[in-house]
Amino acid sequence: MSDKSKELFEEAKKFLPGGVTYSLRFFEPYPIYIRRAKGSRLWDVNGNEYLDFWMSHGAVVVGHNYEPIMKAVKEQLEYGIHLGWCNEWEVKWAKAICSWFNTDMARPTNSGTEANMYAVRLARAYTKKVKIGKFEGGWHGGYDALHKGVSYPYDKLASLGLVEDAMKDTVLLPFNDLEGVRRIIKGLDLAAIIVEPVIGVAGNIPANREFLKGLREICYEKDALLIFDEVITGFRFYKGAQHYYGVKPDITTTGKAVGGQYFPGAGAFCGRADVMELLDQIKRPYFWERVFHGGTYTGNTLTMRAGYTLIEELERNRESIYNHLEELGNLMKEGLEEVFSKNNFEAYVTGLGSLLGIHFTKERPINGLTAERTKNSVIAEKLFHYMINNGVLYQTPVKPYIFLSTAHTKEDVERFLTLMNGFIKNL
After folding, report:
1. Cα torsion for 325, 326, 327, 328, to the nearest 10°?
2. What is the CA radius of gyration of the chain?
3. In whole angstroms, what is the distance from residue 270 CA to residue 254 CA?
4. What SS3 state is found at 236?
5. How far is CA 310 from the centre of its chain?
């Protein structure tokens, strides 16, 4: 561990609640403070080097400090960052986003939370209905209406300060259980169903293709909109998880990587023209006739240019990038399953492509409930600290998430597998 990190944490506790800027980053006995990053590596304030499988909450697809993006950003710094007016990069960015997700129109936001908030508002305005279906274990940011059923047990209030009125029209649904969804929403008039194609907080659990197709049909039947939250998946699959699954949502939300991976103020929602035109101040000149969307830093040149550059790079290097990510993902998943099998160790691996989750459970996880009710958190925490002590980082201590990037190599994956094998043998 890092003695300088310990010193910083003691100081941080005096000024930051819990000593951190996000409780997710805390772990016992104290969090690690990172000074710099490059590729698949991180260095803490003591100079210790780590192999990073957290990749900035999964946002980083092409590795830390990817040169083409950094070059574009350094050039933009000379021109200005937040100009407060329309700029050419927001136009280029919007065109690139619409092309990427094969949709009509887009708007940038300052976070994934905002993207989901505006998507829900838009869906309610378009359908003239209020109820929203969301899934147990689904995380869509801190927006009150969607901050329900996030962490297990799902019947507990997800945060102090939430009021029932803000969540009374949010309907909790079981992930990967189409019959369960139909049973719960029977007789309900939904404005929308929002879903992550690979549900993140529950442990990077992918949806079944037929499940997503079923949700698409339900939304047609209910005259409701289907919203895909692609904050994590939007750029980890070529043209998003919706392209991989072959299921087209009405609205797509994204965040993090949409602004070039590294910069704050990044998010977006996009969709069909007939839905998105409810934001159009030209067609709807009176504010009470349209859906409000805005933000002081929305469309700032730095985020727009970085996001545009990332999409250009992903398009230009499509085959090499996505073949590499798929190859590494398969190597990691198959390798972990082999380690567990040959050691006769009860554990499961979920995931799709470059996203994986490791589950120390007695049943194969297909949704949040099955990932949580038999989970052995003690083993998970032991693994977390074992990996840190061997120079490997990921989050969280009780939920081992793995996010791969183009900067990772087969040797990085093999190192993780070797450590996992050693951990189980010692355990």
Report:
1. 50
2. 21
3. 9
4. coil
5. 17
Amino acid at the residue 88: E
Whether the ω angle into residue 29 lies within 30 degrees of 0, i.e. cis, is: yes
Q: Which of 66, 424, 25 is nearest to 416 (CA)?
A: 424
Give every CB contact of residue 112 below 8 A, 6+ residues apart in sequence.
Answer: 140, 141, 229, 231, 253, 254, 255, 256, 267
Which residue, among 92, 220, 207, 201, has the nearest Cα to 149 in the 3D structure? 201
- C-alpha to C-alpha distances, 15 to 44, 71, 387, 422, nearest whole angstrom: 21, 35, 30, 40
Question: Measured between alpha carbons, how far is 206 from 189 in angstroms, rounded to an integer?
Answer: 27
Q: What is the pLDDT of residue 1?
A: 63
103 Cα distance to chain centroid = 20
* pTM (global) more than 0.90: yes
* Residue 411 one-letter amino acid: E
Write down the pLDDT at residue 321.
98
Tell me the one-letter amino acid at 81: I
The answer to whether residues 108 and 304 touch, using CB atoms and an 8 Å cutoff, is yes
Which pLDDT score is estimated for 2? 74
Which domains occur in the chain, in start order? 3-53+319-426 (3.90.1150.10), 67-316 (3.40.640.10)
For the chain, which residues score pLDDT lower than 50? none
User: 213: which residues sit within 8 A by CB, 6+ positions away?
Assistant: 245, 247
Nearest to 211 by CA among 241, 170, 168: 241
111 token code pair: 């976070």
DSSP 242: H
pLDDT of residue 264: 78
pLDDT of residue 228: 98
- The pLDDT value given to residue 265: 76
Beta bridge partners of 356: 351, 402
